[in-house]
Structures
1.
Amino acid sequence: MKTYLVFPPHWTATEPYLSCPTLTAFLRAHDRDVVQQDANIEFYRYVLSEDFLTRARDEVQERFDRLEAKETLTLDEQDRYQVYTQALLPADNAVANVEQSLADYKNPEKFYDLNEYYRMGRVHFAALKLLSALYHPSTFTFSEATSRYRFGSSLEVFHAVEDRNENMYIDFFEAHVLPKIEAYGPGILGLSISSPHQIIPAFTLATMVRRKLPDVHIVVGGGYYTRMLVSPDRLAALFDVIDSIVVYEGETALLRLVEELEGEGRLDRVPNLLWRDDDGAVRVNKPFHHERVDDLPAPTFDGFPLDLYLSQKLVIPYLTSRGCYWGKCAFCTSFETYKGGYRQRSIDLVMKDLEQLSRECGSNVFFFVDQATSPASLRRISGALLDSGAEYFWQTEARFERKLDLALLEQMHRSGCRKLLFGLESGHQRVLDLMEKGNRLEDTRRILEDCQRAKIGIHVFLICGFPTETEEEADASVEFVLGVDGLTASPGFTYHVHTFGLETDSRVGMNPERYGVTLHPMEEELDQFLHYHGYEVAQGMAPEMHERKLAEMQGRILQHVVFKDYPVHGPHNLLYLVHYGWKYPEPQDNVAQWKDLSYENLLAFVPVLADEVTVKEFKFFVPEEDGAPTQRPEQPIKLIGDRKLIQVGGHSYCYIGRTERSWLISQRGRALLDLCDGNRTVEQICLRYEQQHPSKMAFLQATNDMRVFIQRGALTKAGNQAS
Ligand code: SF4
């Protein structure tokens, strides 16, 4: 019986995920026919294309024009008007440059130039905005896909899979996944779900396959449903569409499933399987099976389009161990996805795997995606790499352990380690202790400083709003990070702050009173909802404050950081460190050089519209966008906000893609910009304007406007635009 494995959207686009490659290798090692498809990266390629974006822009423009033809807009129309406007402003740039930007990710000269790197990211960001507008109110970014349908409700998920207007995956699956599955003719379809953002796409595909190929056994696996084991009965509705769910590790379970379906079909004999029996009860097959990691083959990426990932070089994911040797952090449930304890693969096999993967994937850069690599493992791996003489580069996740001393860090650097990812979580000792992180901040500081000395880059994860955390304690996290000598300004520093998410099966979820938490009753409809309970806290920041505090924390750190891996997250900073070593050219701020423009220089300036600048007329006022960057124009654009919005007519926006800044400009501003053809000086432009609009103040007002346009980067010196 043949097996078809799919990794569905939505996941990061920078490197492949390991689940399907691990299962594929295992089934093949047992002589089974299996193919795998990374539908996630193929989906990105599908939407990040000139053809798709052209159609998207034209459709959004049409809808926008229909709204502009109206005299008034209802609240819902205002909402759409705003979304369409924000999507259309950078749309031409996205359409024109998307294909080139994809190619530029592979071009070292572009990828390793931060100005170019950020530009590529902006093009893709604008493209995803257009996609979101097309499927409004669904949204799509590089890290999240949301829709009006909550993934936590099976009822809503089943509605989402039928909604062609708002489900952006249906067309893609019909064109690029379903035909391949049909052509292969599998007996089993496996869908890997590790993130809640994959639930709607995965069940969309499952529903389509169920209708088209009703005899195919559909099995779902991955971390998300393993955590649902706290209440498996809540999964019952899913079995209307799928046949089974594999929890914990999937290799032996999937092989046994294949064997059973080839034979007697006794699902009760397949380890780690959840299924619905004839009486409608959800059955959980125990005891759970855990793999001996040395018995497993190396993963294979055969069948994945390795050249499509958004990265100059493929960063190969690899596991040197399974499980977390610490396993105590109160907010965490990741370690629960491996029940069999901390298991390290023997070093000889690790070295063999790395050699094989490097050869097969054409890259020598690895991300050891272990939950936490212990100091002993780091010593073992770096020692073996040095002995082998192989030139590999790598990063991994680690904990702030005292044993991580300078000598070990230097050995790791010599072996190719260029970056470590740490869950710092908090810069306040009381909060850390409550989280049961097991770290002392003085050790943490010493390790972060030693990493700088050893020239190993750092990524820190911070949590905002752990129960009882006060605003002052959250501020202490920022101050701790900023206070480590040279950390944020180092070329290898990246960070991520996220709000605390209360997971049902975490220690906080299991013992809420210990953390001063009162849980709201779970909405009955949210049968698949595992993660974020509504809750209240007895002390500290209330949950509704978290987003604001998060934005403040992000912003305070960001201004000190050299490598801003926005909007595409991933191991790109690692590649920069591999390429340049400890120093690389910082991006040039083309605006800064025009800030101190003297009056004489201003008049002699020959301006032209800068790259990524759009000037467009809108009939209605447009609200300031939610979650926009903190640097907003002095006069933010306001929504009138009443039940009806009246046309104001004839106002233009100037939008600068490079800074994502937009502001309302006057008719004078619009006229001046139209005169900036790259052949006239500012003086000539202002004189021309004065002739056309004679008044006492015309010349002065025009020069002031021109100064603002230049200082904000809307205009640049003729000849300065990118070719
Ligand atoms: S947060 Fe990391 S170190 Fe802590 S228990 Fe989870 S996986 Fe282990």
2.
Amino acid sequence: MSSPLSLRPAITAAAASYKFPLLRKKNTISSSSSSALPMASNPAVQIGGFLAKKNYEAPPWASHLSPLPKHTYSLGHLPTPIHKWNIPNLPENTELWIKRDDLSGMQLSGNKVRKLEFLLADAVAQDADCVITVGGIQSNHCRATAVAARYLNLDCYLILRTSKVLVDKDPGLTGNLLVERLVGAHVELVSKEEYAKIGSEALAELLKERLLSQGRKPYVIPVGGSNSLGTWGYIEAIREIGQQTKTSNDEIQFDDIVVACGSGGTIAGLALGSKLSNLKAKVHAFSVCDDPDYFYNYTQGLLDGLQAGVETRDIVNIQDAKGLGYAMNTSEELQFVKDIAATTGIVLDPVYSGKAAYTMLKDMAKNPTKWEGRKVLFIHTGGLLGLYDKVDQMASTMGKWQKMEIAETIPREDGTGKMF
Ligand SMILES: Cc1ncc(COP(=O)(O)O)c(C=O)c1O
């Protein structure tokens, strides 16, 4: 037998010339022919439901909404857990619980997964061969879309917003970018100024025209996956919470649901679902960009698109949690993220749930009577990879480290499992 070392050149040469036999240039998905489905979504090659295409039936209390989705892809690891969140010094008799939508997956995780279950089913039904979406340079939505699209054998084109000085430079591999680039998403950068001037819809349209002229079949997903179809993701989450609380030993009835708001789709689904179902919890949104008025109007459009016949201002309360600006943090906010992790084990992201929880707890301290005796469900919407963008700013909040002291008298002998 040759030594492992002698195999190395052969492996390197083979790897260099290796072609994935199953990789196809263009998607040949047809909703009518299962044999033409891509690898991952072909029911014959997945076990246990993950990545399966399913017929969708809306909850009875939402069945009057229109249009109703026909299909979903099972992309999330659902239901996500709900557990008590033991943060100290809450107002009297306030019970704080947390729904762990950050655990809806790994690289494909967070709140966007729920929206993508509907959006990508629509893309496949429309015979798309690629998707386009838009977001900030560390967009969790873009990362989740890139991964989900790859699973379903769709190419993914991302338009990412960055600063004027960085728009011509390699965006690097920090956080979400690493995953996006690993799964082969096409990254196109625009400056914040171009984004503000042209707008996300027009930018996506420009890219769509280019891809159409190349013979591609692009499907556009709006910023954050927040359109009326994507709203179904969190209408479904309300059904999930209802089922979880009904079957729990505690038989808990939540009074309030608290969540971050960045493009509006999550709060639209939660607020509408909570109003229509038996849950009837009050939904509190903490907006991390734009302002509450913008989101009242935007979510109204999402609900009108479902012919819901409700006023957003009647079903959701939106408070500003933007602070210094979108994706910008004060050192106090980052210290809060660190303290929550150190006391409860919950790692919040700095851009969304971190700011929402920070502002919620400030509000609890300022207006305790508003929250006293209430059962509050905070939804952790994920975004862990966004923390990697903050490592420099967070360094000073970290605990001490030291080289392990090993007495000179302890013999340095070869042991087993040396790892080098
Ligand atoms: C981690 C995370 N949490 C919350 C949100 C906000 O959700 P929505 O865009 O539906 O308002 C986003 C995206 O914007 C997100 O990436």
